[in-house]
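Ligand-bound model needed. 6-O-phosphono-beta-D-fructofuranose.
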Amino acid sequence: MKRVGILTSGGDAPGMNAAVRAVVRTGLIHGLEMFVIYDGYKGLVEGNIKQVDRDFVSDIVSRGGTIIRSARLPEFKDENVRKIGIEQLKKFGIEALVCIGGDGTYQGAMALTKMGINCIALPGTIDNDIASSDFTIGFDTALNTITECVDKLRDTSSSHQRCSVIEVMGRYCGDLALYAGIACGADLIVTSDHILQRNDIIARLKAMHEEGRRHAIVIITEKLCDVHQLAYDIEKGSGYECRAEVLGRIQRGGSPTASDRVLAGRLGVRAIELLLEGKGGRCVGLRGNDLVDYDIEEALKMERDRHSNLIKVVTSIC
Ligand code: ADP
Ligand code: F6P
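Prediction:
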């Protein structure tokens, strides 16, 4: 194996650049020829591929987003579309890929490996929904962004004695809401793992209002309900004036935290080591403070940690 490609795919995440940098530089140090594939699997199919040197990844460790861009291409599930991508790789003599993204990206990497291209998948998503890694690249930065936003919302919520319902991202994973809820001292945290029925939410807030607690912060994972309707219902039923805030894609932007940069660097180096060991169809993750790697197929079947240890914290201090 001499030529290796790298792509970022799915929702972008802060720290993807740091991972690209680590993969490219580690590959070059080991004498590999390194290529970037723009726009994820879409660019692979379109042949948007370029050989890069050390300088290409200079000054990107602190940059948010991904300089090789990201995209979604649902058609990549089709084997015939993947065959076009493999033909493109052959034109450049690329034999192996590092694919950075979420579980959809992992599916693509697994499918390509089965078709003869050795792929290593790295967890890059703010959602922290990759069961084979305790943390994903981008989660810590997004969590810090949310914390900063909620702290600001707390100021105005408290001045006006309101309830703020704050919707955070995570797709179907509640980790951003759970961690942010603890970090921000939220009064209620609602996620798909810890669903509260609308009536329960209103009843709890009503009790808080009657206790004389002057304002309230509710953090809720996206896709569970219409938060504007929820805010309306809370206002009608709890005694609090209530506002809904959807933080949206601001959570995906910004310079990565030091923690995300270090994680990205460690995972990137390991990805190249695995390829040099002749391995493919693997994904790298973090367990405790150790790097681990699994067969992608096995990793995709893993159950996510439901954080029972954190729930104890929530019930004690939130
Ligand atoms: P993420 O990687 O963040 O989960 P997506 O679910 O959008 O984001 O997946 C990213 C891309 O991975 C998709 O646009 C598609 O190109 C590819 N992909 C997703 N699922 C599959 C699959 N089952 N087989 C092959 N490729 C897939
Ligand atoms: O996977 C990252 C993520 O930001 C999710 O939290 C969110 O549900 C989704 O991507 C939004 O994707 P898009 O920006 O394509 O609408």
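The first helix runs from residue 16 to 29.
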